[in-house]
Amino acid sequence: MREDLLHYIWNFKKYPQQGLRTTNGDNLSIINTGSHNHLRGPDFFNAQVRIGDQLWAGNVEIHINASDWYAHHHEKDSNYDNVILHVVWNDDISVYRKDGTEIPTLELKNQIDTHLMATYRELMKANSGKFINCEKNIAEIPEFEFNNWLERMFLERLEEKSKVIENLLQTFKNDWEKVLFTLLLKNFGSKINGDAFFQLGQNLDFAKVRHLLGKPLELESLLFGMAGLLESEEGLDFYYKELQTTYRFLNAKYELGNIPISNVSFFKLRPPNFPTIRLSQFAMLYASSHNLFQDLIHIPEIELYGLFKVKASSYWDTHYNFGKESQKSPKIISKSFVDLLIINTIIPLRFCYFRHKGNYNSDSLLSIMKDLGEEKNGVIGNFKLLGVHVGTAFESQAILQLYTNYCTKNKCLDCAVGNRLLNLKS
User: 255 in helix, strand or coil?
Assistant: First the structure.
């Protein structure tokens, strides 16, 4: 037995509606199960129950064993003084309030339909090699219900991303441009170099970076140097030496030697995603725009692609790494990469910025996400194989949130899909 199943049973009244009695034999009627509390304190607030002839209003606490009340030290916590009913699977001990009165108890282990228990066990069956617990039935969920849940998942994912932004704002003393610089740099690093690029962005003094806007060589040398890409004592070619000389000048001017180097990786990366290419593209983006933050916050979605229409510096037309020539190919930022920047940087930043300004409109963000194509990865591919429609970035972001925060954590009873399946089959 799991406590989350008991919460589900109580919340959705999956117990007999007639003939209930407390463990002391008193007649019990459930008038209102209360509001589910996911924070500290009793599990359900503002419930109403009738015990005998007395109507009680207060809170409900749920445990597997009644003795868990003492194991969790609720008898010492004033948050539990207003508990009017203790709902347990197994009543192994009487529980008392601080004033010595016994808390009425409802024991459930002989009250629950066996088919519900069997359905739950099948859904939650461990070590079965399933991708997700509900993979056989997820396509049965009505489209309207599933789409409503996806919208909830998308907004939940935005909230999680906003926490990173809020922390950066606090660290950078509400410097939105510095926050953008750091987040955008992180997402230019993608999965492999995201953390290293993020550290680089955090460590750089953006006041010094501002002096280099419009100076692509200086900005490129700063980023390459701080990424540990200019440390060779053997100058590979003229451009490398030029960057190295410029970085040494900037190092002396801005005392960069005290800032940790963010070492980057080329391992498992396709050449267009090499850190050399991405850092140069990032430098050219900032070198070509002096109002990047205002542009990214306010311009329409369709104009964002023009804003990112930049390429790595000309040296990289014939290189992916220093000193190794390749076939000529301008290293432009692709549309698919811009889509990822919109999804992972611009939308979360707009969400936070407009909420700070008091004019947040979720519909406008949802509209942008629904205009973008879905992300391509193994998780999304597996959901499609199960018959789940994923065609937009809104849907793929919502599915990733569902998978990461619910499916992989067996939180089926906190999920609208799991709840619906149990209701259909019980």
Answer: coil
Distances (CA, A) of 399 to 153, 372, 382, 389: 7, 15, 11, 10
- DSSP for 93-154? S--B-TTSPBPPEEE-TTTS-HHHHHHHHHHT-TTS--SSTTTTTGGGS-HHHHHHHHHHHH
Which secondary structure element, helix H or strand E, spans residue 224, and what is its range? helix 216-226
CA-nearest of 375, 370, 388, 302 to 344 is 375
| Cα(401)–Cα(6) distance, integer angstroms | 25
**What distances in angstroms separate CA 208 from CA 115, 149, 223, 253, 255, one per listed residue?**
67, 45, 12, 10, 11
189/120 Cα distance (integer angstroms): 42
**Tens digits of per-residue pLDDT, 392-411?**
999 999 999 999 999 999 89
Chain segment 333-348, per-residue pLDDT in tens: 999 999 999 999 999 9
Question: Rounded mean pLDDT of 163-168?
Answer: 96
Confidence at residue 320, expressed as pLDDT on a 0 to 100 scale? 97
Confidence of residue 420 (pLDDT cuts 50, 70, 90): confident
Q: What is the mean pLDDT of residues 73-77?
A: 91
| Of 289 and 367, more confident | 367
Q: What is the CA radius of gyration of the chain?
A: 29
How many Å apart are CA 19 and CA 394, to the nearest integer? Answer: 47
Query: Is-contact 57 48, C-beta < 8 A?
Result: yes
Residue 409: CB atoms within 10 Å: 11
- The distance from CA 299 to its chain's CA centroid, rounded to whole angstroms, is 26
**Angle of CA points 182, 187, 189, to nearest 5°:** 100
DSSP-based three-state secondary structure for 374 = coil
Other C-beta atoms lying within 10 Å of the C-beta of residue 336: 11
d(CA 375, CA 156) in angstroms, rounded, equals 18
Global pTM value:
0.85
